[in-house]
Automatic annotation (TrEMBL):
Protein name: GH10 domain-containing protein
GO molecular function, one term: endo-1,4-beta-xylanase activity
Organism classification: Eukaryota, Viridiplantae, Streptophyta, Embryophyta, Tracheophyta
One matching Pfam family: CBM_4_9
PROSITE patterns, per database record: GH10_2
Keyword rRNA-binding applies: no
Length: 1218
């Protein structure tokens, strides 16, 4: 177990306890009302889980919780709550009549207990056998469901207690269980179904010999009809919504008599099935599957043993293909699984690993699978079945699962992180996975440092049922699980074969579908020609079997039938609709026109929708807006401080103190004012107070706007708020599916630029903006670090590929209240977006040039033919280069004919030049540098050090700190001095936001010190931080633009580093790019006012569904158009065995489509010009920046005149043609 700081532990415990106190108090108040059989509010159930709460708070305590924590009262109930339903058919369930109606079971002893307050209860004492306890005989009715509850306690320690019903035919029905403890009352909830009428006996049992205390027992019967009625009522409340549709004309008047045809396009409740690899090659399976299901889980194909059966030989080709197939049909995918805690599922090579080797292997596995599929799955089963099994806990300690969950959330924060277990619903007799124990494990994971509210946890209940499912117990267990307030998914439902398999399946599906805590269902029915795991839905010709018919019947039943409604006199038609996406087509008997409109109905959607009957004839009158908002974050304050500083410095009298105070009070937090005023206290106390006050203001202008300015008031929204009517709101952070706060209407094929000023009510944390587009996708529009007392701007956006209603909301990794103001959402059609790019390119990459041509006599040469061709300079566009270029003339020819900039892919890295300690070899890198010089190719130095621990040689990892410093100094000196004057940049410490090898060894200032040391050896190159996912993946919290800037600021503020030349390196390894987010992130990073380079651009062809070329061009154009971007390097180095992610050519150096796209852009961005001079010998043109060869032809010239002019730095040139 790791050692922890007690302060942090106490704070964590207090945080947990406070939330529980509030929940318990609320539940206690709610419990005054009598609960119904389908009372999903679970009023009194919540406080029945004090055992869970207590253990969650005392995570590191193996014995009972202490009576009190500092400042907190104990959570356990000293007295039980009232029995449900007044006890139902149980006689004297509250023991007010002593032990009347009760007897000892199994030759045990029975006594009456009384609390200090006079409450009476039964005590099973002197127990020597598990079944010796309290019992009561009851009469059961045939074909009846019974809900069971009881309050339990044990005399000593903690013990599992189970409720059992013994029937007349000798069957023992396990009806529920709970972990009871001494000193607090815990509720057991469960039930059973009676299949025959007759006498039965209810009793309790435990393997522990402690006394069992029992109170307030209830057993309530419900007929099948009553139970089904509760289903229907819950479905009506949870899965449906009554909506009013109003038809209006262009003037906003209602259209009475309008006919509204309502068609349910897609069900809102996720219902799916597991999928096997056979779907890739079987069209019949494909048609059957895609016509039914909206969500899937790959049965085995994503598991570790499927992707790396042999160590170091990963193969994702099958899950990649399955994911492409699912996405192409709009089917969401759950990631199953990252790790499986069952020892029997581990490969032999995994079991044979040492502790450190296993740590490395698991780190590679989680990085490999999650970086590949991050943003493409809706949930991850992170550690499968970690209640039943403990392979990783046995090797790493009890925190293993929690640490895996933390890492998983860091790598894919947008996905749900699920605990996936069997028997929690299926088998009340399995003590290992009782609902209370499941929740305790969930709390342990959430309470682990770095998890908390950040991880979007979910409950995964497999649902592998026997031939006789206990339906009342399913409901009771779900009630208990619902107290976690996280989404519950049934992840692997099947029913054991038998004559009643189909009817039992239907009962289970109806039960879980109607429970409000359940957010989705997956059936474990992946088809195989040799047979399914337990249950199939079809035969091998894809004809439904009885279980398949049940599924089809429910899919049909849980959809709204297509129908036509007639609008009333006010244009309204009211309908009760299942949640989902709808197409509403409006016609009118008096008109020939038809209007179709899409709408989405869900828990958080509006109850009223307006259908614009003349929508086909309306045209947008939106004012033209520009998506490039390259203004300062707070121009008002910036200008105010500039002006104030000048006034103070120019004024002889010190009369501006009040003005300065006003500005500071208006815009800066008290903490920041104290910080800066303290820093200048000595100067402010001098006689030259006026001068130093002015300097303070100018200091604020120059320094604070580098990233540390704190605004006390938000600025006005960009674009005047765009389509958002109200730019301010205040709402508590919630889970994504429950946290919608703004409903917006999205347009198809539009980019949306989003911005908002944000603040937290306390502390600091990450805040994420999420846009839910009409296709149901949760798009992270931006993430930013926010703190209390300061308004901070988030900029980003997302793209909508469908029209209809959507949501915008915020979520955070902390519990503080989120405050937002000045929000803006501005839509841009794809054409508008491209137009703005063109406008920006014209402004940033081109200039109007004027060339005057004179003859030898100095007179204007009119009507001369002038041809301009760019030969050098201009915008830097390059590519990575591999050592294969030294031996492949075709590669050399292909590369050097295109690129003027390059990065050596690996050849300059430490592991390439000194793989074995003290055996340096720079021969390959030297030859590549020589080749680049031969062709005037400018090089970037990549890299001095790499902060990823996995990229260190073993000898480096094993060094002591003094020896490491010595080795690093040698590496620094040799590589930097060797290539001094030969590289224009250095990636100094690669990826030091994601990784921290050198910080972990040398301290938090390690990177800053390395920057300083590199500059001492060669002060000419620009020194870069180089990171991935800053503009590619808004769901990756490590390299957020604001965190990147904070790291850069920390490096610059390190003693001796203020005068260094810095650059921002953005690797740009894209899957499907979020272009608006890319632009918003570049806007944010531009505030650092240092050069930005896209250093390793590629687009993954496997994950982009055939759109690699399209996405590559989009990314390149977006980067080229942004004024802060000063260069682009592609990460498409050629290898005979294949490129890193993206190739531009085949092995014969014939362009692939990606190569054609780059050639097209190269030609476009260095286009020349031809024309004739006017009567004054002048030719004017708009040209890309660069150095041009100018060829002049004229009848007076004996030969063509060719000269080179620099149009990169100046806009005019005079050429004397002789």
């Amino acid at each position: 177990m790791r050692r922890r700081e007690w302060t942090g532990a106490v704070l964590l415990l207090v945080w947990l306890v406070v939330g529980v106190i509030n929940a318990v108090a609320a539940a206690a108040a709610a419990s005054m009302a009598q609960p119904l059989a389908y009372d999903y509010s679970s009023s009194s159930e919540l406080v029945g889980e004090e055992d869970i709460v207590c253990v969650a708070v005392c995570l590191t305590v193996s014995s009972l919780c202490t009576e009190k924590l500092p400042g907190q009262e104990r959570k356990c109930l000293p007295e039980p709550m009232d029995a449900h339903y007044g006890g139902g058919i149980i006689r004297n369930g509250d023991f007010t009549a002593g032990l009347q109606g009760w007897s000892a079971f199994g030759y045990g002893s029975l006594a009456e207990g009384t609390s200090l307050t006079g409450n009476k209860f039964a005590v099973a004492t002197n127990r020597t056998r598990p079944y010796q306890s309290v019992s009561q005989k009851v009469l059961l009715q045939n074909d009846t469901h019974y809900t069971l509850s009881a309050w339990l306690q044990v005399s000593d320690g903690i013990a599992d207690v189970r409720a059992v019903v013994k029937t007349a035919d000798g069957k023992f029905i396990h009806s529920g269980g709970v972990e009871a403890r001494s000193g607090c009352w815990s509720i057991l909830k469960g039930g059973l179904t009676a299949t025959a009428a007759g006498p039965a006996e209810l009793y309790f049992e435990s393997n522990a010999t402690a006394d069992i205390w029992v109170d307030n027992v209830s057993l309530q019967p419900f007929t099948r009809e009553e139970w089904r009625a509760h289903h229907d009522a819950a479905i009506k409340k949870t899965r449906k919504k009554t909506v009013r549709l109003q038809a209006k004309d262009g003037a906003g008047n209602p259209v009475p008599g309008a006919q509204m045809h309502i068609e349910h396009v897609r069900n809102g409740f996720p219902l799916g099935s597991a999928m096997s690899r056979e779907i890739l090659t079987n069209p019949g399976y494909q048609r059957w599957f895609t016509s039914r299901f909206t969500v899937t889980t790959f049965e085995n194909e994503m598991k570790w043993y499927s992707t790396e059966a042999v160590p170091g030989r990963e193969d994702y080709s099958v899950p990649d293909a399955m994911l492409r197939f699912a996405k192409s049909h709009g089917i969401a995918v759950r990631g199953h699984n990252i790790f499986w805690d069952d020892p029997s599922t581990q490969m032999g090579w995994v079991k044979a690993l040492s502790g450190e080797q296993l740590r490395s292997a698991t780190a590679r596995r989680i990085k490999s699978v999650m970086s590949r599929y991050a943003g493409q799955v809706i949930a991850w089963d992170v550690v499968n079945e970690n209640l039943h099994f403990d392979f990783f806990e046995g090797r790493f300690g009890w925190e293993a699962s929690a640490a895996f969950y933390r890492k998983a959330h860091q790598m894919d924060a947008g996905a749900l992180m699920s605990m996936n277990e069997f028997n929690t619903l299926e088998q009340p007799g399995d003590f290992t996975v009782l609902p209370g124990k499941y929740l305790r494990k969930l709390w342990q994971i959430k309470a682990f440092p770095g998890n908390g509210n950040a991880a979007r946890m979910a409950i995964g209940l497999e649902g592998h049922f026997s031939t006789h499912p206990n339906i009342p117990y399913i409901r009771a267990a779900l009630d208990t699980m619902a107290q976690a307030n996280v989404p519950v998914w049934l992840t692997e439902i099947d029913v054991a074969p038998g004559p009643d398999q189909a009817s039992h399946l239907e009962q289970i599906l109806r039960e879980v579908y109607s429970h409000p805590a359940v957010h989705g269902i997956i059936l474990w029915t992946a088809w195989h020609p040799q047979g399914c795991y337990v249950m199939c839905l079809t035969d091998n010709n894809f004809r439904n079997n009885p279980a398949g018919d049940v599924v089809d019947k429910l899919i049909w039943e849980w959809r709204t039938r297509s129908h036509v409604g007639i609008a009333d006199a006010d244009g309204y038609y009211e309908a009760e609709l299942f949640h989902g996406d709808y197409k509403v087509t409006v016609t009118h008997p008096a008109a020939n026109s038809t209007v179709a409109q899409s709408l989405s109905v869900g828990r958080e959607s509006d109850n009223e929708f307006t259908i614009h009957y003349n929508a086909l004839y309306r045209h947008s009158q939106r004012t033209h807006s520009h998506p490039y908002e390259y203004t300062h974050a707070n121009p008002t304050l910036y200008e105010h401080l500039q002006k104030l500083g000048r006034q103070i410095l120019e004024n002889d009298e010190v009369t501006t103190d009040a003005s300065l105070s006003t500005v500071l009070n208006e815009h800066l937090s008290l903490r920041q004012m104290n910080t800066f005023l303290f820093a200048f206290s000595e100067q402010l106390a001098t006689k030259n107070m006026k001068i130093y006050t002015g300097k303070l203001v100018l200091f604020l202008v120059i320094v604070l706007f580098e990233g540390c300015l704190c605004l006390k008031s938000p600025e006005k929204p960009l674009y005047g708020g765009g389509i958002l009517k109200d730019g301010g709101y205040k709402a508590k952070s919630k889970a994504p599916v429950k946290g919608s706060v703004l409903n917006v209407e999205f347009k198809k094929d539009h980019h949306y630029a989003f911005s908002a000023w944000l603040q937290l009510s306390k502390g600091a944390g990450d805040v994420r903006a999420v846009m839910v587009t009409p296709d149901g996708k949760f798009n992270t529009a931006g993430v930013i670090v926010v703190q209390c007392g300061c308004w901070t701007m988030l900029k980003g956006g997302a793209t909508s590929y469908a029209a209809g209603k959507g949501d915008i909301f915020f979520e955070s990794n902390v519990t503080a209240e989120i405050m937002a103001d000045g929000m803006a959402l501005q839509p841009f059609s794809f054409d508008e977006w491209k137009d703005h790019r063109t406008e920006s390119i014209k402004k940033e990459r081109k200039k109007k040039v004027k060339i005057t041509v004179e003859g030898a006599d100095g007179k204007a040469l009119a009507d001369a033919e002038v041809k301009l061709e760019r030969v050098a300079k201009g915008f830097p566009l390059g590519n990575a280069m591999t050592k294969e270029i030294l031996d492949k003339k075709d590669y050399e020819k292909w590369f050097t004919s295109r690129f003027q900039y390059a990065t050596l892919e690996n050849e300059m890295k430490w592991y390439s030049t000194e793989y074995h300690q003290n055996q340096e070899d720079y021969r390959v890198a030297d030859k590549m540098v020589e080749l680049a010089a031969k062709y005037n190719i400018t090089l970037r130095g990549h890299n001095v050090f790499w902060d990823d621990q996995h990229e260190q040689m073993k000898w480096v990892s094993d060094l002591s700190v003094p020896k490491l410093k010595e080795a690093m100094a040698k590496r620094l000196k040799n590589v930097v001095t060797r290539y001094a004057g030969k590289v224009i940049h250095w990636d100094v410490v690669n990826e030091n936001l994601h990784f921290s090898f050198f910080e972990g060894k040398l301290g938090e200032d390690a990177s800053a010190q390395i920057f300083k040391d590199v500059a001492k050896l060669d002060s000419n190159p620009i020194l870069f931080m180089n990171e991935f996912n800053t503009i590619e993946q808004p769901n990756d919290p490590a390299p957020l633009p604001t965190k990147y800037l904070a790291k850069l600021k920390k490096t610059r503020e390190f003693p001796g580093n203020s005068g260094l030349k810095y650059g921002i390196g953005l690797e740009s390894h894209f899957g499907t790019p979020n272009i608006p987010y890319m632009r918003g992130s570049l806007d944010t990073l531009a505030q650092a006012k240092v050069p930005i380079w896209l250093t390793e651009v590629d687009v993954d062809g496997k994950s982009t569904k055939g759109k690699q070329v399209e996405y590559l061009e989009e990314v390149m154009r977006e980067g080229f158009a942004h004024p802060a971007v000063k260069g682009i390097v592609l990460w498409a180095a050629w290898h005979a065995k294949g490129c890193y992610v993206m190739c531009l050519t085949d092995n014969n150096f014939k362009n692939l489509p990606t190569g054609d796209a780059i050639d097209k852009l190269l030609a476009e961005w260095k286009a020349g010009h031809s024309g004739k001079t006017d009567s004054k010998g002048v030719i004017e043109a708009e040209m890309f920046h660069g150095e041009y060869s100018v060829t002049i032809k004229h009848h007076s010239l004996k030969q063509h005149c060719v000269q080179t002019v620099d149009l990169d730095s100046k806009g005019e040139a005079k050429i004397k043609a002789a």
